[in-house]
Amino acid sequence: MTDTAVRSWQDRAAAVVPEVGAFIDGEHVEPRSQATFSDISPRDGRVIAQVPNSDSADIDAAVGAARRAFDDGRWRDMSPRTRKRRLLAFADAIDAHTDELALLESLDVGKPIGDALRVDVPGCANTIRWYAEAIDKVYDEVAPTGPNALALVRREPVGVVGAVIPWNYPLILAAWKIGPALAAGNTVVLKPAEQSPLSALRLGSLAVEAGLPPGVFNVVPGDGPSAGEPLGRHPQVDAIAFTGSTEVGRRFLAYSAESNLKEVALELGGKSPQVVFADCPDVDATAQAIAWGIFYNAGQTCHAGSRLVVEAAIEEQLLAGIAEVAHTLQPADPLDTRTRMGAIVSAAQHERVRRYLELGQQEAQLRLGGAAVEPVKGGCYVEPTVFTGVDNTMRIARDEIFGPVLTVHRFEGDPDRAITLGNDTDYGLAAAVWTSDINRAHRVARELRAGTVWVNCFDVSDLATPFGGYKASGFGGRDRSLHAFDHVTQLKTTWIGLG
Ligand code: NDP
User: Fold this and answer.
1) Could you tell me where the beta strands, DSSP code E, fall in 350-392?
2) What is the C-alpha separation between 409 and 252, in angstroms, rounded?
3) Does pLDDT of 321 surpass 60?
4) What is the Cα–Cα distance from 44 to 53, expressed in whole angstroms?
5) Catalytic option among 302, 311, 383, 400
6) Do residues 84 and 77 make contact, with C-beta atoms less than 8 angstroms apart?
7) Coil/strand/helix, residue 145
């Protein structure tokens, strides 16, 4: 990549004029709320745009549009084949706007432009496509009721789905929510995080350009208290699909309980253990996977492998391998396509991660990194960091740091000790075990309490596999796979007497 090519992304970034108005009923609209917030790029601290901080009146308008679009059947009553074609066209439109969406994503959250181009935009389009393809292939059921009756068990769309997402993978998480919801025939109001509204707002207009009827997919920017809460409490919203912190997840349960008992599906935080036995198949490959598993996206991944539980005999060799990979992942300008680690999403999150870096140096031993850096002036960056000598009572071991910070927990002797250490967390989103012993691999994988367990690999995924957590990592539904239809549909049994 030449400097000219780097400059070309910077030139394009300087020229970006994003759509910022809420997208309601097929168009960007004037906000009812007079308030705005500054959308700041963590790349360099620059204000990208002033974005309307939507409030309950804006949410009301969006939910009203979604309600009408659901009730009059303009989407759910379309033939499955037509609905599929419209969603496939939406996926194609996302692909066709890869550069534009990737740039918005990179600017908004400080993600490396190369990752946005290779991972986030294609991941978003492929998710929409995957659910589109399912529309005319998933059948309902006929119950085995005997000769005198026919009992049909049908999945019906739940109605208006409110999707509330965080900032770490805005395009991918938006697609995980809207893909199954729209494919099932629901209408949607999406509230992106205030740190990352731009790509979601562009998805709204692309959907309509691709043929989704107005009102079917609406996007409302705004912060949690002013826009998220009214959506969570709205009596005309039938289900909430949420990804974010455990604390806000609890609030959505309360909003539901205090309003209309809407369905709530929660995908929350994680503190995933990487359990490595001394007989792991290939130490270098394991180190590589562990380093990427915590440092990718600057550690801002809900299932990041943030706790390394390692057998003492192999600890030094493994840490040397992780350090080697970490040296190749130093933070750099997100708009340079060679960059492998970008920025922390915001000044607030940067400050939060820095506090954990300080705390870690009081609680444990700093092995690698540990400092905030500034490869782009005014930006929010942190070095890949490793703390050793960590035990599970320390806050760096218990809290979800959401930054590029690995804690190392050593064990010796009884292999069950590794399982106990791995499970000693409030979270249960994901885990991994590394061993050449097939019996041990199965046994440990079975005992680890997490929604996904990887054996001798990490972060392998496919849209065909469900994703979600045990314990404080969430419940109420899974993202990805056909199981994602469960929380955006409801079952109706129709009995037909034949006697
Ligand atoms: P939050 O859970 O606060 O935000 C997630 C979404 O919920 C955002 O759209 C947010 O809006 C919205 N929200 C926030 N407060 C409310 C509220 N009171 N009512 C309704 N909606 C609300 O996560 P943060 O972005 O603040 O990150 C904090 C921590 O959460 C991170 O450090 C990390 O530990 C964890 N996290 C986990 C993620 C995961 O993938 N599981 C993703 C992101 C964060 P807005 O931000 O606009 O206020």
Assistant:
1) 365-368, 372-373, 381-382, 385-388
2) 34
3) yes
4) 23
5) 302
6) no
7) coil
Phi then psi for residue 269, to 5 deg, are -80, -175
Amino acid identity of residue 119, one-letter, is V
Write out the two tokens for 380: 């929010």
How many CB atoms lie under 10 A from the CB of residue 446? 11
Q: Is the CB of 229 under 6 A from ligand 1?
A: yes
Whether 196 contacts 108, CB under 8 Å: yes
pTM summary value: 0.97
Beta partners for residue 150, in sequence order? 496
> Residue 311 in contact with residue 412, Cβ under 8 Å?
yes
pLDDT tens, position by position, 466-483: 999 999 999 999 999 999
Closest CA to 156 of 250, 236, 41, 77: 77
Interhelix angle 170-183/121-134, rounded to 10 degrees, is 10
Residue 315 annotated to the active site: no
The verdict on the CB of residue 225 being under 6 Å from ligand 1 is yes
Distance 413 CA to ligand 1 centre (A): 40
Q: Is the CB of 244 under 6 A from ligand 1?
A: yes
Active site residue 374: no
**Does 193 sit in the ligand 1 pocket, CB within 6 Å?**
yes
The candidate with the shortest Cα–Cα distance to 292, out of 268, 330, 336, 326, is: 326
Give the helix/strand (H/E) hosting 470.
strand 470-471
Query: Rounded to whole angstroms, how far apart are CA atoms 289 and 296?
Result: 10
Q: What CA–CA distances, in Å, run from 5 to 99, 294, 329?
A: 14, 29, 21
66-79: pLDDT as tens digits? 999 999 999 999 99
Helix (H, G, I), strand (E, B) or coil at 447: helix
Q: Which SS3 state, helix, strand or coil, does residue 164 take?
A: strand
Q: How far apart are the first and last CA of the chain?
A: 75
Confidence at residue 499, expressed as pLDDT on a 0 to 100 scale: 83
* Residue for token pair 């289900």: 239
6, pLDDT greater than 90: no
Q: What is the 3-state secondary structure (H, E, C) of 15-71?
A: CCCCCCCCEECCEECCCCCCCEEEEECCCCCCEEEEEECCCHHHHHHHHHHHHHHHH
Amino acid occupying residue 273: P
Q: Which atom of ligand 1 is nearest to the CA of 352?
A: 32
To the nearest 10 degrees (0 to 180), the angle between helices 98-109 and 3-14 is 80
Please name the residue whose Cα sits nearest to atom 10 of ligand 1. Answer: 224
